[in-house]
Write a structure and sequence with these properties.
Elements: H1 11-63, H2 67-81, H3 85-97, H4 100-113, E1 122-123, E2 127-128, H5 129-142, H6 146-158, E3 165-171, E4 177-183, H7 187-192, E5 195-196, H8 203-210, E6 214-216, H9 219-222, E7 237-244, E8 247-255, H10 265-282, H11 295-307, E9 312-320, E10 326-334, H12 354-357, H13 367-377, E11 381-392, E12 395-408, E13 411-418, H14 421-435, E14 438-444, E15 450-452, H15 454-460, H16 483-495, E16 500-507, E17 513-524, E18 530-539, H17 541-578, E19 586-588, E20 591-598, E21 608-615, E22 621-628, H18 632-650, H19 656-669, E23 676-684, E24 689-695, E25 701-704, E26 707-710, E27 729-733, E28 739-743, H20 755-767, H21 773-782, E29 792-799
Helix pairs in contact: 1-2, 1-3, 1-5, 2-3, 4-5, 4-10, 5-6, 5-10, 6-10, 17-18, 18-19
Domain ANTAR: 32-93
Pfam family, one: ANTAR
Coiled coil: 550-577
């Protein structure tokens, strides 16, 4: 019989093959990882080869040895110092170079690892900060274009910081931005952001205009658009200006995929150092992709442009100090129309420095600051009125000029137009005459020539081509009733030869009558003979009719005020007749009832607060407090209606809730739409129980011993609001020495405090008041902190 599994087959053989396969895959994976490691090491070695060769050159020069011996010395020194050869090479290059970048690296290392430590700072993947920065510098300096610089910065310096994308912007002469290089950004996205016109606010634009680093924690929250804002919407950004010689050539923008936490000072310094690396390629970057125009030809074209201007123009070139920093501007050319502020000839200006020629321009916010800002950012400056100051024989001379400043390549064009004083005053006079509706004239008595300005033709209703009218013909164009005043005016000016004025009504050919005031003065020669008459007409029609209307308004206002005062007086008399500010206390059936009333401080606020306390035929005692909406006669008469109606209804013997129900019918149907709040109470001497109900009013306060309690807020809307209303009724058992307070809102209400807090404050004050009932009420009224300036009613009930 044959075996079910031939030799070499079956489960045992299959497991062996599986293990062999797994071993093959493992070896393959290990080989791939080893090759990757070798590639990374080769790349690192290639990146650092330039630094190592530079370090060897330093040792050859200093030790006077050959290249091979220098290589051995470099290895031995690195081993003794505990550094890698690449790290030691970077340190040697830094010490030998002592350039601006070395200074930034030293500052970075000092903040990163602290003074006195031997080990260079490690960031990200452990690579020395000095090595990374020097490697990035080598890549940037060796790059032939800005695109290669962007890729080198991202690979060597920014990826260890967590950044995933970088953009390098070139600044145009008009402060526009052109994407010069990018890395970590798709070509499609870069094409959409190839050009950013002036005025579009982005992080890079802010860095260009503010000339400082702009750190954005979260691009989405900032609301600023920028490149890759869709892919990295929730990430952080930093934009740093890249400049040289005092001029911002562009901006380095770095992108992080996540919100950016506040970065330490070393990282900020590293980012600023990387921005400086971008400047040298931006100097030669051409946004149009063509050949750069020679600097000389561009400067010659700017000089030709300045010579074609009709205002004073200066062509300025930046002047750098020994460290390559901008210190001043040299005046390369002034045009033919140029007029110096101090009156100096053109030859004394050309070739000099701006601050030497115009030292007063160094003040903060002055001309030099504007020129320096335009040169740095490319953002043009325009001002219709700018104050310019210059020293003339050590005396400051100030002029006002319209100024324009713009950048052209590396040069700055300054144009100013000093305002002529005579022209300025004439312009000012013309505007004043137009606004004041004034027309001027001059009439020569020798030649008969008459000169009018345009406003005077318009005042007379004549076309500008018409002949001006002589002053002697003025009576022919005036209202007949004004003839006496005009003749007196003409006699004073023409015969007595003295200045005078007159007001009259001018009747124009179109039938319109204007109220006019004329003023004139004679012009005399040395012998006192009349040469001419000068003067002006002013249209005062608007003023005249305003005065007429104002007079009528005053009369109407006086009549209205008189009526209002009469109404207020009647309302106050009615109120005081029914409810005097204080009345004698009532003692009945073991109760003492006292009342205090304080009217509003202003008579026009006389309102409709009321109180009542009366013994009914049933031997029960009716107490009530209410408040009518509105003031004046309406409020006072409404108060009388409801107060008397409640007295009459109480004679029926009904309870408080029923009385308020009937009183609501009176307010809603039988009166002129009265709205009011009220509390009604009936005290039974036999049971010592006070039954009460409320219609939208504040609840009573019960003082028992040293404690004060606010009674429950029973249901009940204000009187007159609805046609049919039911009111809830409550009751309180009074004990000896109990005090029950009924009041209106004028006692407690404050504009800035909730009403519940105001009532609690009254309760606290009532619990602390002692003495007879009248003194308690006076104390509460005197110490009330209400600020609504409303009527105040306070009724107190004390069980004896």
């Amino acid at each position: 019989m044959s075996s079910p599994n031939p030799p070499g087959t079956g489960p045992a053989t299959e497991n062996t093959a599986d293990r062999a396969g797994e071993g093959g895959l493992g070896r393959l994976a290990a080989t791939v990882e080893r090759l990757r490691k070798q590639v990374r090491e080769a790349n690192a070695a290639a990146d650092g080869r330039a630094l190592v060769e530079l370090a060897k050159g330093v040792l050859v020069e200093r030790l006077r040895c050959g290249p091979a011996q220098a290589a051995r010395q470099l290895s031995e020194l690195a081993e003794q110092a505990g550094l890698t050869v690449l790290e030691l090479a970077a340190d040697l290059v830094n010490q030998a170079a002592q350039d601006r970048f070395t200074e930034v690296v030293d500052q970075f290392l000092a903040h990163a690892v602290g003074e006195g430590e031997d080990r260079p700072a490690q960031v990200g993947d452990g690579t020395s900060a000095a090595v990374r920065l020097r490697t990035a510098e080598s890549g940037a300096l060796a790059a032939g274009d800005t695109q290669t610089v962007a890729e080198s910065l991202l690979e060597h310096a920014l990826t260890p910081l967590g950044a995933t994308a970088v953009a390098i912007w070139s600044a145009g002469n008009d402060s526009s931005l052109t994407l010069a290089g990018f890395a970590g950004i798709t070509p499609e996205e870069a094409a959409r952001w190839r050009y950013v016109p002036p005025g579009v606010v982005t992080p890079a634009r802010r860095a260009l205009v503010e000339r400082g680093a702009v750190w954005v924690e979260d691009l989405a929250r900032s609301g600023l658009p920028s490149v890759a804002h869709r892919d990295l919407a929730g990430g952080g950004r930093v934009a740093v200006p890249a400049g040289a010689g005092g001029r911002v050539l562009g901006v380095l923008e770095i992108c992080w995929p996540q919100p950016l936490e506040p970065q330490p000072q070393p990282v900020r310094r590293q980012v600023e150092a990387l921005a400086e690396l971008c400047a040298h390629t931006l100097e030669t970057f051409d946004p149009h992709g063509g050949e750069d125009d020679p600097a000389g030809r561009a400067l010659a074209e700017l000089v030709d442009l300045a010579d074609g201007l009709l205002d004073s123009a200066l062509v300025l070139r930046p002047h750098l100090d020994a460290n390559g920093e901008l210190s001043d501007f040299r005046i390369h050319h002034v045009n033919r129309r140029f007029v110096d502020l101090a009156g100096r000839p053109r030859g004394a200006i050309v070739g000099a420095l701006v601050l030497e020629v115009y030292p007063m321009a160094a003040d903060d916010g002055s001309l030099f600051d504007k020129v320096e800002h335009v040169h740095a950012t490319g953002e043009p400056f325009r001002a219709e009125r700018m104050t310019l100051t210059e020293l003339v024989d050590q005396v400051p001379l100030t002029v006002v000029a319209a100024v324009s400043i713009s950048r052209h390549g590396d040069n700055v064009l300054v144009v100013w137009r000093v305002q002529d004083e005579t022209a300025r005053l004439a312009n000012l006079l013309q505007h004043a005459q137009r606004l004041g509706r004034i027309g001027g004239f001059e009439e020569s008595t020798a030649t008969g020539e008459i000169t009018w300005n345009s406003q005077l033709f318009a005042l007379y209703g004549l076309p500008a081509s018409a002949d001006p009218l002589p002053l002697a013909q003025l009576p022919l164009h005036a209202h007949p009733d004004d003839a006496v005043a005009i003749n007196r005016f003409l006699r004073a000016v023409l015969h007595h030869r003295r200045a005078d004025s007159a007001a009259f009504r001018l009747q124009r050919p179109d039938g319109v009558t204007r109220h006019v005031r004329v003023i004139a003065e004679p012009v005399l020669d040395a012998a006192g003979r009349l040469l001419a008459v000068r003067g002006a007409y002013q249209d005062v029609s608007a003023q005249h009719w305003t005065e007429v209307a104002l007079s009528a308004t005053r009369d109407q206002l006086a009549h209205t005020e008189q009526q209002a005062a009469e109404h207020n007086r009647l309302a106050l008399q009615l109120q005081q007749a029914i409810m005097p500010p204080a009345q004698p206390s009532i003692d009945a059936f073991g109760l003492r009832i006292a009342v205090r009333y304080r009217p509003a401080e202003q008579e026009h606020l006389v309102g409709g607060d009321w109180y009542d306390a009366v013994v009914l035929p049933s031997k029960q005692i009716l107490v009530s407090v209410g408040d009518i909406t509105g003031h004046g006669i309406k409020g006072a008469t409404g108060m009388v209606v409801l107060r008397n109606a409640l007295r009459g209804l109480a004679a029926t013997g009904a309870g408080p809730a029923q009385l308020l129900t009937w009183l609501n019918v009176v307010a809603h149907h039988l009166s002129d739409n009265i709205l009011a709040t009220a509390i009604c109470g009936l005290y039974d001497p036999q049971t010592r129980v006070l039954r009460w109900a409320r219609a939208g009013h504040l609840p009573p306060v019960l003082v028992r011993g040293q404690h004060a309690t606010v009674l429950p807020m029973l249901d009940g809307v204000l009187l007159g609001a609805l046609a049919e209303v039911d009111y809830e009724e409550g009751q309180v058992q009074l004990e000896q020495d109990d005090v029950l307070l009924l009041y209106t809102d004028g006692l407690v209400e404050r504009r800035d405090t909730p009403l519940d807090d105001c009532i609690e404050a009254l309760s606290s004050a009532a619990a602390g008041a002692w003495g007879p009932l009248e003194e308690r009420l006076d104390h509460l009224l005197t110490h009330s902190d209400a600020d609504t300036d409303d009527d105040t009613c306070l009724l107190g009930i004390q069980m004896l």
